[in-house]
Design the sequence.
């Protein structure tokens, strides 16, 4: 991804429109799953932190609700 960003930042990037479109399409293709993975990873971390906090609480009803 960093290599594609470097290509896009070059001053002559738009000099070859066909090549530019190909690079942008490739970046988009790679970026979408990466963004989804980052989002899922954040949700997993948030859920893990919430469960850890609830383990410290005496309210087991809320813990049971989160685990389902």
Sequence:
């Amino acid at each position: 991804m960093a290599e594609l960003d470097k290509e896009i930042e070059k001053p002559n990037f738009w000099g070859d429109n066909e090549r530019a479109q190909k690079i942008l399409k490739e970046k988009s293709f790679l970026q979408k799953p990466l963004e989804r993975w980052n989002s899922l990873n954040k949700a997993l971390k948030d859920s893990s932190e919430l469960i850890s906090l609830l383990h410290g609480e005496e309210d087991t009803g809320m813990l049971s609700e989160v685990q389902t």
The two ends are 37 Å apart (CA to CA). The longest helix spans residues 17-56. DSSP finds three helices and no strands in the chain.
